Amino acid sequence: MSHRLIACENCDYLHVEEEIPTGSVAYCVRCGSPLYRAAQVRFDKPLALAVTAFLLFLIANSYPVLTFAMEGRVETNTLSSGVLTFWREGFPFLAIMVAVTSVLAPLVLILAHIYVLLPISLNRQVPGMQQVWRILAIIRPWSMLDVFLIGLLVALTKLTDFADVIAGPAFFAICCLIPTVLLMNITLDPRYVWRRLAPANLRYPTSEDIGDQQGSDQQDRTLLTCHTCSMVVLGGGHENVRCPRCGAMVHHRKPRSLSRSWALLLAAVILYVPANVFPIMTVTYLGRAEADTILSGVSALVRAGEWPIAIVVFTASILVPIIKILLLGWVYIATALGLSGPLKERTLIYRITELIGRWSMVDVFMVSILAALVKLGNIATVQPGFGAVAFCGVVILTMLSAMAFDPRLIWDRAGMQTVKRPRLASVKTDHDRVENQGIPS
């Protein structure tokens, strides 16, 4: 009996794909990374959530987020106001990044789900479904509305000390939009979408292919894993082939992964110094201008008694970048040296650092909101500073560094390479931890 193969994206260990209980998740038996959720037959729930998210997104972009009133003057801002303000103030890099992370990426994420899931639910095919779903895999990490909400709350805390601030309809729409998008993502496993988009005659490699390889003298067949749709591809002796399911180029490992990751991380380290030395914004209040760095902003929140917000900002803007740089550097060094050690824990650390890096955008979003809202001349004005540009660069570069790194190298360099005749294992689930059941090689 043949079984479909599935490879772990983080350690490249091959497994036999099995049926698992509804609501459970399968995990890699070697590194513990999640592999897939229970099979999905219907896609109506994530589709309904995607439509709801789109309606909430329209509201969030059509009405004011906050209304700021001071000395008889009133200012309002929308979700895209910060983008326009950054552009007018001469900070195009900040304008582009805020536009991508708070407007464009969330919109593409929602529309891509609707464009692909609606035809699937109706058992139809429309042009470009595979291309749209491939783009979604690239866009997903850059959708940061949840981080934007934290920046919005920080800005709201700073403004309430010296002015009247009223939350508008868009504020509540954003608060509802974030959990809706979150539910849309966690109720859908992209692997099963790819299976519905796959060509009808597509053949998946199975455990019989491994058996054939083991009984054959040919050494020119190799199994590769598509990093876009996670399909195990029979390479046929070539390390660079097109995935037959999604059309992406498949490599044995990401080209020049370690060198590119190091270059991006070192650039982030260089920018981290001006990000903390130069002001991220200059606040003018009643004719008096005061420059704020990241650390001075945290100190101001502490003096105002806003300890919870101060802790969030300090963690996201100071601790997280430092910890991420140090941990990524340690993972890269250990990988380059081929250290064995706790490989499972090292893989987990990499996965965590990849996830938390985006939360450092809190300060950038906060500055965009304040600069767009507080525009009262000498009475009160907020202007962005070079520190915000440098800090945004740190966040983006560390994210790109983590994305460029191939975590499978952690296991390769430690002598745990996946060979051409691998030993297969049954998956583990969160409901039933199955013992490792190897198929003899």
Automatic annotation (TrEMBL):
Transmembrane segments: 47-70, 90-120, 132-154, 166-188, 262-287, 307-334, 355-374, 386-405
UniProt keyword terms in alphabetical order: Cell inner membrane, Cell membrane, Membrane, Transmembrane, Transmembrane helix
Key word Phosphoprotein present: no
InterPro entries: PqiA-like (IPR007498), PqiA-like_proteobact (IPR005219), PqiA-PqiB_transport (IPR051800)
Domain of life: Bacteria
Main location: membrane
UniProt topology in membrane: Multi-pass membrane protein
Similarity comment text for this entry: Belongs to the PqiA family.
Protein name (database record): Paraquat-inducible protein A
Lineage: Bacteria, Pseudomonadati, Pseudomonadota, Alphaproteobacteria, Rhodospirillales
